[in-house]
């Protein structure tokens, strides 16, 4: 009888050790997985309603509509006039406020990439240039105009008053603006 108890006790100890080793291995794998996540992955898995803090100190509460390789766009709910469209480069984001559920959701495994995931910030700006959409480059010194051309890391802006069309008499100047000089593009 005592030998049976001894073997049962050894068996349960062995099972406990295997279980602890398996839990340690799973925890280590999860740490490695999270270590490979990028900001874009976290935003893709987070709730669509985001509270962004930007480099300039501005805060935007927005509903994400699309997420490209290095940018997101959506509708601003707070931090600009209501229902303003916005394109935000990921490099301008210094923080995203989430509740506990949102933070946990943002750690989910990223889904397979779609076409949007391959589109760059420059591509999104080229679309605005093609449409001749008036914009305001928001940042330390906001500037209004229409995007003329887009390079890899900069754009040419025809500077004019908001609401004006870029005509010979309304354009005050053309400005070359590096992407790093503004925090987001407002679509009035």
What does this protein look like?
The protein is of the alpha+beta class and 188 residues long. The chain is 31% helix and 34% strand. It is built from four helices and ten strands; from the N terminus they run H-H-E-E-E-E-E-H-H-E-E-E-E-E. It has a ten-stranded antiparallel β-sheet. A hairpin with a 4-residue loop joins strand 1 and strand 2. The longest helix is centred in the first third of the chain and has 34 residues. It starts with a helix and ends with a strand. The mean pLDDT is 89.
- Assign an overall shape: elongated
**Radius of gyration from the CA trace?**
25 Å
Strand content: 25-35%
Structural class, from secondary structure content? alpha+beta
SSE string, helix = H, strand = E? HHEEEEEHHEEEEE
The overall pLDDT, averaged over residues, is: 89
- How many extended strands? 10
- Give the biggest beta sheet: 10 strands, antiparallel
**Uncertain ranges:** none
CA(first)-CA(last) distance:
84 Å
